[in-house]
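Work Package 3 (structural annotation) set out to generate three-dimensional models for the target panel prioritized at the project kickoff. During this period the team completed the workflow that converts sequence records into discrete structure tokens, so that structures can be stored uniformly alongside our sequence database. As a representative example, we reproduce one entry of 73 residues exactly as it appears in the project archive.
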Amino acid sequence: MKKDVKIFLNHILESIELIEEYIKDKTEDDFFTSKFLQDAVIRRLEIIGEAIKNLPIEFRENITTSHGKNLLG
């Protein structure tokens, strides 16, 4: 695996872990009433999206859901 791919995958994993930490023990109402929390989660989703866009196409084509569908369309 190329170093760049590892970097992008690490960005994705780190962002997922941070989102989990941000929303742990939070309710839906907590989320929608906290602009700070919304901004933090949205920023991490942006980072995930950018990292995915930077993965090589042949790598992205092999990312599937648990149902076998291509996750990225």
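The longest helix spans residues 3-23.
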